[in-house]
């Protein structure tokens, strides 16, 4: 960062911290937190890389930051510039001063100050390399686990104000249920981490299953699968696809299927699958079962290009429309034009000649003609859209 | 619909295609397309061998918010309005694909080609029989006209 920008940015956070030399490698002054002025001096190396900064402070500042050495070191490494670091430092100070004043007022209960130092200690015992981020108020932090094949998994731990008396809540990128924590008053972050890694182990077979699909077929949706995504929409051919939803705990069992595309293409596939269901072999992978039961070779990245299966909608001329991809197609084999559900629905329902039926089951079907070939086409209103 | 239709995307796509790969006798003036792409002007040339061979005409396309679910408004503008039984002297065109036979499968290019072909099939240069009355009484937009379609064979 240029010196002018740096001094400007620092001025906005700590107006009374000033550079002592033109190179701006030495800063001295006051940092104001909760109405208190604390003396702070920062020494930077010649290249002004704030990550190697040396922090010096008065007795009071040192007192406040004594238990947060590691955290401050970590924030120095992970902030993009000096000004950002200073604003995080202010947050940390604000936090500790708040809790120290609370602690002096209310003696007996678990105070936030001890909670903070406990969390810091916990992270130290777990290993700082496993911490991916922490929010300056110490109320949530994210831990990382690297799988054997280089895959990364994250768990976000939200600490309760009553921590550790009240268990933290966790969010993960696991495909199954949320992580059920076993938590006692003596539990630590390391216990959460162990439980997290255990449940990662439970889903290893699931990730292998979907990885095989992701590598060997064209997955149309999701565009960029996340570790928690249980469904894959696999291209079968031009404008036809099958969506499989995998049980993350039993990935080799029969998944849920949904065929999408023109009836003349997908109906025979669906029939074939239903007729061969008895041959599903849980000893083999999901993809290999699918190939056998449908008796097809899936178009693969080795044999085809993605564009072959991402033909744009005949109405809006785009492939992705508000996240959706064309999932309807004209049933006329000579036409086969793909449409977004919403585009086709909008067109058919705007036709004065279009007519709708409402059956006793409440299905609302709109009939009309394909805009391209004039062959009848119909669409059902989907309530979940 | 809460969100705007992707008209912009489709129009960009059409404009690009028409500029890169225009059919013979049709050219879009890229500067004529307004920044919102809702107004274009397209030059068309009468087809060789037709009564309008070599004549230059200018079409103006106006796209509404619901394009391509609704047809664009298309009229002849400029100094040369073709003398044709389906074209009024104010530039309005009586062509069913521009109103009730519109489909989103049509495009600017398809409309231009239809208009050129309408001109080509003409055997006698003359105005519609009701031209004087129509031009005096019609609404500004031909889309508001309830057309009584002239014989398609002309
Ligand atoms: Zn569409
Ligand atoms: Zn069709």
TrEMBL record, chain A:
<dbReference type="InterPro" id="IPR044037">
    <property type="entry name" value="FANCL_d3"/>
</dbReference>
<dbReference type="GO" id="GO:0061630">
    <property type="term" value="F:ubiquitin protein ligase activity"/>
</dbReference>
<feature type="domain" description="FANCL UBC-like">
    <location>
        <begin position="117"/>
        <end position="203"/>
    </location>
</feature>
<dbReference type="Pfam" id="PF09765">
    <property type="entry name" value="FANCL_d1"/>
</dbReference>
<dbReference type="Pfam" id="PF18891">
    <property type="entry name" value="FANCL_d3"/>
</dbReference>
<feature type="domain" description="Fanconi anemia complex subunit FancL WD-repeat containing">
    <location>
        <begin position="9"/>
        <end position="94"/>
    </location>
</feature>
<feature type="domain" description="FANCL C-terminal">
    <location>
        <begin position="312"/>
        <end position="380"/>
    </location>
</feature>
<dbReference type="InterPro" id="IPR026850">
    <property type="entry name" value="FANCL_C"/>
</dbReference>
<dbReference type="InterPro" id="IPR013083">
    <property type="entry name" value="Znf_RING/FYVE/PHD"/>
</dbReference>
<dbReference type="GO" id="GO:0036297">
    <property type="term" value="P:interstrand cross-link repair"/>
</dbReference>
<dbReference type="InterPro" id="IPR026848">
    <property type="entry name" value="Fancl"/>
</dbReference>
<dbReference type="Pfam" id="PF11793">
    <property type="entry name" value="FANCL_C"/>
</dbReference>
<feature type="domain" description="FANCL UBC-like">
    <location>
        <begin position="205"/>
        <end position="301"/>
    </location>
</feature>
<dbReference type="InterPro" id="IPR043003">
    <property type="entry name" value="FANCL_d3_sf"/>
</dbReference>
<dbReference type="GO" id="GO:0043240">
    <property type="term" value="C:Fanconi anaemia nuclear complex"/>
</dbReference>
<protein>
    <submittedName>
        <fullName>Uncharacterized protein</fullName>
    </submittedName>
</protein>
<dbReference type="InterPro" id="IPR043898">
    <property type="entry name" value="FANCL_d2"/>
</dbReference>
<dbReference type="InterPro" id="IPR019162">
    <property type="entry name" value="FancL_WD-rpt_cont_dom"/>
</dbReference>
<dbReference type="GO" id="GO:0006513">
    <property type="term" value="P:protein monoubiquitination"/>
</dbReference>
<dbReference type="InterPro" id="IPR016135">
    <property type="entry name" value="UBQ-conjugating_enzyme/RWD"/>
</dbReference>
<dbReference type="Pfam" id="PF18890">
    <property type="entry name" value="FANCL_d2"/>
</dbReference>
From TrEMBL, chain B:
<dbReference type="InterPro" id="IPR000608">
    <property type="entry name" value="UBC"/>
</dbReference>
<feature type="domain" description="UBC core">
    <location>
        <begin position="6"/>
        <end position="154"/>
    </location>
</feature>
<dbReference type="GO" id="GO:0061631">
    <property type="term" value="F:ubiquitin conjugating enzyme activity"/>
</dbReference>
<dbReference type="GO" id="GO:0016567">
    <property type="term" value="P:protein ubiquitination"/>
</dbReference>
<protein>
    <recommendedName>
        <fullName>N-terminal E2 ubiquitin-conjugating enzyme</fullName>
        <ecNumber>2.3.2.23</ecNumber>
        <ecNumber>2.3.2.25</ecNumber>
    </recommendedName>
</protein>
<keyword id="KW-0808">Transferase</keyword>
<keyword id="KW-0833">Ubl conjugation pathway</keyword>
<dbReference type="Pfam" id="PF00179">
    <property type="entry name" value="UQ_con"/>
</dbReference>
<dbReference type="InterPro" id="IPR050113">
    <property type="entry name" value="Ub_conjugating_enzyme"/>
</dbReference>
<dbReference type="InterPro" id="IPR016135">
    <property type="entry name" value="UBQ-conjugating_enzyme/RWD"/>
</dbReference>
